[in-house]
């Protein structure tokens, strides 16, 4: 298989898998879940097979069709996209294992539709990762929104549907009202929307216009959840926990911060944006989002809502790192996408396992639960420490690089934001950990143990990945260093 063919196959595998899952679901749940596992393993094989080519400096690309002169559907595999695709495909397998335990343990309805829509969402995610230009990226960005709507609305009750409509409404209105005009503006001034090393806008826009176009992109990419375009994310917490894990760790939010980072690097260009004074607002917007979302998280009493606002803050770490416009920070942005994915998916898996085993959803109900669910809460502890940035977790590595980039740029706002938000992260996670391990459960608590084995297995795997990434992050750093080589 040629690399060009592999790109198309990677996008097509989840589509074929969705059909296989739908057909298998009519026969037996076991066959449906086998189809899910085979599809996810096949996707890993194809996507990860492209990695050696990227490490050797290759950039395979393929053009599918020309919609009109200058407007094509095309794909190119570059380091940022490779990282996103490898992360999404790898975590889909673990998420699928977890989903089987969760969906069966919780006796959820419409499980076949759930697994099929998951596959469709992964196809759109790979399309976003490998998009060769803004037009292709926009198409798959929208497909990702549409394919995840049934997952958010899975429960089907009135309250869930209302929240799912907020999810859909915010993401579609921002992308059509802001992201699309930004793309059209870019094509009109640059004559192309191709992702190009060094950017395509140098000499094409004046300083005030640069800041305005950047604003259209940042707030148009609502999936990045930069305030005030963030309300869809807490609303999406009505979804089953495996969907929350998909939204907050694998596909949707990562598609947002990946898109912003890719646009900064390949459309504006780091050097060009660094020289534009009108672009400096982005760092302040990201810093505001980090601190504000962390303060809101402090006030939450529901586990999933706390994790949702934590996600909003953590996403803007990536945006702020990209906005620092220094090589170390750009590498830190990419590393944080991985570290956050491992840590946050672990936290959501643990929250779902708690719900399946005990039906507990509130923080105050976790008192002493570490004795009943030691594996789950040990994994939760690792995920929480990674969000804070404590070694030996992956979150420490990414924060180190972002902080190093901030010092490289002598950016005191970024330095202060990282330190302050780390204190806030500790303020809302450490009391939970103390409650879980050192306080006693109230009398009359319902008898329960761990969640189903597959759910616990999955969350233990992601917790181990969170720890392993502290030591084995070299390939990610090497790959992403190609993006910023010679810049800054």
Q: Please describe the biggest sheet, giving its number of strands, its sense, and whether it closes into a barrel.
A: 2 strands, antiparallel
Q: Order of helices and strands, N to C?
A: HHHEEHHHHHHHHHHHHHHHHHH
State which percent range the strand residues make up: under 5%
Gap from first CA to last CA: 37 Å
| Helical fraction | over 70%
What is the overall number of helices? 21
Shape: globular
Low-confidence stretches: none
Mean of the pLDDT scores? 90
Task: Please count the beta strands (DSSP E, at least 2 residues each).
Answer: 2
Q: Strand order across the biggest sheet?
A: 1-2
Radius of gyration: 21 Å
Topology:
Layout: H1 3-25, H2 29-49, H3 51-55, E1 61-68, E2 71-76, H4 79-105, H5 111-130, H6 134-152, H7 158-190, H8 207-220, H9 232-235, H10 241-250, H11 252-268, H12 270-274, H13 281-298, H14 303-324, H15 327-358, H16 369-372, H17 374-388, H18 394-408, H19 412-438, H20 453-471, H21 474-484
Antiparallel strand pairs: 1-2
Helix pairs in contact: 1-2, 1-5, 2-4, 2-5, 4-5, 4-10, 4-15, 4-20, 5-6, 6-7, 7-8, 10-11, 10-15, 11-14, 11-15, 13-14, 13-19, 14-15, 14-19, 15-17, 15-18, 15-20, 15-21, 17-19, 17-20, 18-19, 18-20
Features:
mainly alpha; two-stranded antiparallel ribbon; 21 helices; 2 strands
Walk me through this protein's architecture.
It is a multi-pass membrane protein. One of its GO terms (cellular component) is plasma membrane. The chain crosses the membrane at residues 6-25, 37-55, 67-94, 114-132, 138-154, 166-190, 210-233, 245-269, 281-299, 306-325, 337-357, 378-402, 414-438, 450-472. It holds the Pfam family Proton_antipo_M. This protein is mainly α. The protein has a domain at 280-488. The chain has helices at 3-25, 29-49, 51-55, 79-105, 111-130, 134-152, 158-190, 207-220, 232-235, 241-250, 252-268, 270-274, 281-298, 303-324, 327-358, 369-372, 374-388, 394-408, 412-438, 453-471, 474-484; strands at 61-68, 71-76. It has a two-stranded antiparallel ribbon with strand order 1-2. It is globular.
């Amino acid at each position: 298989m040629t690399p060009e063919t592999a790109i198309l196959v990677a996008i097509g595998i989840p589509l074929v898998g969705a059909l296989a899952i739908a057909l298998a679901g009519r026969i037996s749940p076991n066959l449906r879940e086998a189809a899910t596992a085979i599809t996810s393993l096949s996707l890993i094989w194809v996507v990860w097979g492209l990695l050696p080519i990227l490490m050797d400096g290759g950039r395979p690309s393929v053009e599918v069709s020309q919609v009109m002169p200058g407007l094509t559907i095309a794909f190119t595999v570059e380091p940022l996209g490779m990282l996103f695709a490898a992360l999404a495909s790898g975590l889909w397998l673990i998420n699928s294992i977890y989903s089987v335990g969760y969906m069966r343990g919780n006796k959820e309805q419409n499980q076949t539709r759930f697994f099929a829509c998951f596959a469709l969402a992964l196809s759109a995610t790979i399309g976003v990762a490998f998009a060769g230009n803004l037009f292709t990226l926009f198409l798959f960005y929208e497909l990702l929104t549409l394919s995840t709507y049934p997952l958010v609305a899975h429960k089907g009750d009135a309250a869930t549907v209302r929240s799912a409509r907020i999810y859909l409404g915010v993401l579609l209105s921002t992308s059509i009202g802001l992201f699309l005009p930004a793309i059209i503006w870019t094509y009109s001034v640059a004559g192309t929307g191709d992702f190009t090393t060094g950017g395509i806008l140098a000499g094409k826009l004046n300083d005030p216009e640069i800041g305005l176009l950047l604003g259209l992109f940042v707030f148009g990419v609502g999936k990045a959840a930069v305030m005030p375009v963030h309300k869809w994310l807490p609303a999406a917490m009505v979804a089953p926990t495996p969907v929350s894990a998909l939204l907050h760790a694998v596909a949707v939010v990562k598609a947002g911060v990946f898109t912003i980072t890719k646009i900064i690097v390949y459309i504006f260009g780091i050097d060009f944006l660094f020289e534009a004074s009108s672009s400096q607002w982005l760092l302040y917007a990201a810093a505001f989002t980090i601190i504000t979302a962390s303060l809101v998280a402090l006030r939450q009493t529901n586990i999933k809502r706390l994790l949702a606002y934590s996600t909003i803050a953590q996403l803007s770490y990536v945006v702020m790192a990209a906005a620092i416009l220094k090589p170390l920070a750009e590498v830190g942005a990419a590393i944080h996408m991985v570290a956050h994915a491992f840590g946050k998916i672990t936290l959501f898996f643990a929250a779902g396992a708690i719900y399946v085993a005990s039906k507990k959803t509130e923080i105050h109900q976790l008192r002493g639960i570490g004795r009943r669910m030691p594996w789950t809460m040990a994994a939760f502890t690792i995920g929480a420490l990674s969000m804070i940035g404590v070694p030996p977790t992956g979150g420490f590595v990414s924060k180190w690089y972002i902080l190093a980039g901030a010092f490289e740029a002598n950016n005191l706002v970024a330095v202060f934001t990282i330190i302050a938000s780390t204190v806030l992260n500790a303020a809302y996670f450490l009391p939970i950990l103390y409650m879980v391990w050192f306080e006693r459960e109230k009398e009359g608590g319902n008898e329960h143990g761990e969640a189903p084995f597959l759910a616990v297995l999955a969350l233990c795997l992601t917790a181990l990945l969170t720890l392993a990434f502290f030591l084995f992050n070299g390939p990610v750093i090497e790959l992403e260093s190609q993006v910023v080589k010679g810049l800054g």
